[in-house]
Design a protein that fits this description.
By secondary structure, the chain is mostly helical. It is built from 13 helices and 15 strands.
């Protein structure tokens, strides 16, 4: 099957070809426990356990692909195959070893049918909510019950009503709450709660997402729009956290450029979802976060691409280029284009799609290189292989959709993607 040739990165045909290629690449990820970590060729890396967050992301993307219902001639899996993949994810999350039938919730990882990391993490649980919400929109059997369970766990175990934020991590029996608090898990909780509110029709989830967003905006505004990521149990910023491990994949030291971009998009989604009920200043905050991230991160060291992290004065710390940062850059640019109507954001998105096409997209083996070195050569220091397709797929999808409602609900409501 031949995928149509495309010449303009970021054009409609280019985005459609990207979506098809990413879904094709992800088609071999299934394992009995869920979905595995993919290597550079799209094969499951059997040396790694099945991670909760990857299983959820792949379930979410499969549901989006089924809802998009794009022509098979593009080279991607059929709608039936994608629905089967999403159903596999729902079943694994419902009855597989990632699910804790004794205490409730989900373990962080499993292998060989048994849990290998029994921590209960807000990050992974947010993705359970997202996966279930998307599967509900796609009509996957069992998704409604999974979403009900995931939301109950999220509300009972992670949501801190007094703070309007999510706590981070429990032990397996929900007996010991870790003292660390993090913005990364809260960011994905915002994404998940927006999707859950759309899927259930209960706007209490939207309001919780807005409360998280308002707290993060306050911290960012008082820190030069470089978001503090790490906090102690009292929500006091720990700005020096992981200075000795600056390239940590989930909790790096300093300001994470990609999160400034990702938050910019999410703030606009919160505003579009809640309308007049949204906290004030979200659009201005999105603009400020975007401008700071681009000024600090893009071409910051004399080479094209976004650096991974900077210090609190905006100087690059980890100079590797992560694919997800570029994906969130084009997402943020597209969201700002929709929100403001200003052409400069379309120009930014076009520039970054050209960079992605030249450096990140693997035109030979498929998907995107997850990491490049500071000279834009494929690397695997932080992210070996090509674990999942979540960030890249959403980047190739957002220009076809409004910034609210969430991806799955928007696709369901419009009956998929239609191409003229």
């Amino acid at each position: 099957m031949t995928v149509p040739a495309v010449t303009v990165p970021g054009s409609g045909d280019h985005l459609a070809a990207q979506r098809a290629d990413l879904l094709r690449f992800a088609a071999g990820a299934a394992r009995p426990e869920g979905f595995g970590w993919l290597d550079d060729d799209g094969r499951v890396d059997a040396s790694r356990p099945v991670e909760l967050w990857i299983t959820c992301r792949m379930t979410h993307v499969a549901a989006l692909g089924a809802l998009a219902a794009e022509p098979p001639a593009l080279g991607g899996p059929s709608r039936d195959a994608l629905l089967a993949s999403a159903a596999h994810g729902v079943a694994a999350l419902t009855d597989g070893p990632l699910h804790d039938a004794a205490h409730g919730g989900w373990f962080a990882a499993a292998d060989g049918g048994v849990p290998t990391d029994t921590a209960k993490q807000a990050y992974g649980h947010a993705f359970v909510v997202l996966a279930a919400s998307s599967a509900v929109a796609a009509g996957v059997p069992g998704a409604d019950a999974l979403l009900e369970d995931a939301l109950a766990v999220s509300l009972a175990r992670f949501w801190d009503e007094a703070e309007g934020l999510s706590v981070e991590e429990w032990d397996a029996s929900w007996s010991v709450l870790d003292g660390y608090r993090g913005v990364n898990a809260n960011m994905h909780t915002v994404e998940a709660y927006l999707a859950a509110g759309d899927a259930t029709g209960d706007d209490a989830w939207h309001r919780r997402a807005a409360r998280i967003a308002a707290r993060v905006v306050g911290w960012a505004a008082h820190n030069g729009w470089r978001i503090p990521e790490h906090f102690d149990a009292e929500w006091t910023p720990m700005l020096e956290h992981h200075r000795d491990e600056p390239a940590h994949p989930f909790r790096p030291y300093g300001a994470t450029v990609g999160h400034g971009l990702e938050w910019a998009r999410l703030l606009l989604s919160v505003e579009a979802t809640l309308g007049e009920a949204a906290p004030g200043g979200l659009r201005d905050a999105a603009l400020a976060l975007y401008d700071r991230a681009v000024a600090d991160g893009w071409d910051a060291d004399g080479a094209l691409g976004f650096v991974y992290t900077t210090d609190w004065d905006g100087r690059p710390v980890v100079r590797e280029r992560m694919h997800w940062v570029l994906a969130e850059a084009v997402n943020a640019a597209e969201a700002l284009r929709q929100a403001t109507g200003q052409a400069v954001y379309a120009e930014d998105a076009a520039r970054w799609w050209a960079y992605a096409d030249a450096h990140l997209i693997d035109h030979h083996r498929g998907s995107w290189h997850h990491e490049l070195d500071p000279h834009n050569r494929p690397a695997g220091f932080v992210w070996p292989g090509k674990p999942d397709v979540y960030h890249a797929y959403q980047a190739a999808l957002l220009p076809e959709l409004p910034i609210a409602p969430s991806f799955a609900t928007a696709l369901r409501d419009r009956g998929g993607l239609t191409r003229g």
